[in-house]
Design brief:
Elements (H helix, E strand, L loop, with lengths): L2 H13 L4 E6 L2 E6 L11 H45 L1 E4 L4 E4 L15 E2 L4 E7 L2 E6 L4 E6 L6 E2 L4 E5 L1
Antiparallel strand pairs: 1-2, 3-10, 4-6, 4-9, 5-8, 6-7, 8-10
């Protein structure tokens, strides 16, 4: 790789929206990183008019990239809104710890609760085993099991939804 090729790569990366670039070819390795913090410009409007012809395509690309980024953010936010709607329809019982869920007191017995069963405050809904300790998950509300989010012997995370009670 000669100096002219390196200059061309620098120019292409600078004009793109890439923030990092890493290239390894034969006996050469090039790693580039841009400053991702937007810099403020003190350029006067008259100076902008002189270079507007050269910078317009790059500015359009950046505007398009920003609008694409905002679309992606909207898509990420939407699932959180749907979870909020689910929470409005009932009370979500979440796992207070990381562990393995057991839906019955023992493998040969029936499940504590299934969808449609009535629930009283303080009733055991399932067991979460953590570090060989069996932790009973009890209901804080009275109602009916509307949905069960986990299966027997499934590993659960902290604050993962287990049940929805309406």
């Amino acid at each position: 790789m000669d100096f002219e090729q390196v200059k061309e790569i620098l120019k292409l990366v600078d004009q793109s929206e890439l923030t990092e670039f890493d290239l390894q070819m034969d006996n050469a390795s090039v790693r580039m990183s841009k400053n991702t913090v937007p810099m403020q410009s003190n350029v006067q409007p008259a100076a902008l008019n002189q270079t507007a012809e050269n910078t317009q395509p790059v500015q359009q690309q950046r505007t398009m990239a920003k609008s694409k980024a905002s679309l992606q953010v909207d898509e990420v936010v939407l699932p959180a809104d749907s979870q909020a709607e689910e929470a409005k329809e009932g009370n979500i019982v979440q796992s207070p710890l990381v562990g393995v869920t057991y839906m019955a007191p023992s493998p040969d017995q029936a499940a504590f609760k299934k969808v449609g069963d009535p629930v009283m405050v303080g009733e055991t809904l399932c067991i979460v085993e953590a570090m060989k300790l069996m932790n009973e998950i009890k209901s804080d509300v009275e109602g009916t099991i509307a949905e069960i989010f986990v299966e027997d012997e499934q590993v659960v995370e902290y604050n993962q939804p287990l049940f929805r009670i309406v």
